[in-house]
């Protein structure tokens, strides 16, 4: 915030400096023009008189001076002529300068000699002042507009961001209790809503993980207790048989039957442990609805078109007919993103192609990448959880991507399968059409 305030102050000072410099430059340029214009017009009047005398040798210089229209000039307001040898009173009155300035020129022409007096007023003093005021007024409006924009940006962008900039750190540290204040208006409304959804999701996952851990501990304690009893019985039966305490064949058979019974009971407990370990450990919520294939492909191919272009990988998308599909749009997008990431990671980077095919009420979308490096005998295992093929030993990953894809599609009444064809890897997604 302090940095932005300093930037605002610097912008205001820079703007005021520019306006001040423009005013000084304008005033100096106007002064220079004023200083030159009345002299130029005075020379023009002398040239006009000289030309008139050359054309009419009998011209009276006094009459000629009075006949020159001052309206043709911007600064000259009055033209007067005094013959040489005029009376003292006329001379004194002639040289008496009025409030405005005047210029005096000696005149020596064929028809006589004397002095020319040109009374002038600086051209456009009022106009220059008006233009200066207009310039300053415009600059002032621009200044207030700039100030308003800076204040608006501060209020609508900087200050809201200042309030939430620490929020990701809170989430990273596990502070999931404090929610964000909802803003229906402003530029951060959807962003804040997304952050709060993330907080709720993290909080929900943490709660579920705690419940799962508690259930696991409870199950382990319960199974440990349940296993202890039959294990003790088996131990006692075994000791008795070892020491020959059962002299009769019937007793020994009963002991053996007891051991088998307890072993069967332990086997049941072990099956429960295995079943609990193989239950769905990922909570993947799916909200089935309806969406169009075109919307999905535009979102999906738009991003990967740019990404693959940077990787210099050929990307081909076959023409398709738009149709309405059943499922969760965001989850379907997640499925294709997982498949594309695998195609980029495990392919040779030459080409990735997408094909479409319809079968009854299903749409089959196939993503094919060149340069398959997975042995064919491993193909049937790639959708298992935590399974990583031999081609992924030097690449990062968890072995859950395709497993998650399958779980999502099953919840959307869809399917996924993979095949190899002429050295290329093909992963096909089956989606239900509406």
The profile of the biggest β sheet is: 5 strands, mixed
Instruction: Determine the strand fraction and express it as a percent band.
Output: 15-25%
User: Which shape, going by the Cα principal axes?
Assistant: elongated
Order of helix and strand elements from N to C terminus: HHEHEEHHHHEHEEHEEHEE
What is the radius of gyration computed over CA atoms, rounded to a whole number of angstroms?
49 Å
Strand ordering within the main sheet: 5-7-8-10-9
Distance between the termini: 52 Å
Total beta strands: 10
Mean pLDDT: 81
Uncertain segments are none
Q: Assembly type of the shown chains?
A: single chain
Which structural class matches the secondary elements?
alpha+beta
In helices, the fraction of residues equals 55-70%
Q: How many helix segments?
A: 10
Write up this protein.
The chain is of the alpha+beta class. Helix content is about 55%, strand content about 15%. It has 10 helices and 10 strands. The chain has a 5-stranded mixed beta sheet with strand order 5-7-8-10-9, covered by helices on one side. It has a 3-stranded antiparallel beta sheet with strand order 1-3-2, sandwiched between helices. A hairpin with a 2-residue loop joins strand 7 and strand 8. Helix 1 packs antiparallel against helix 4. The radius of gyration is 49 Å and the shape is elongated. The mean pLDDT is about 80.
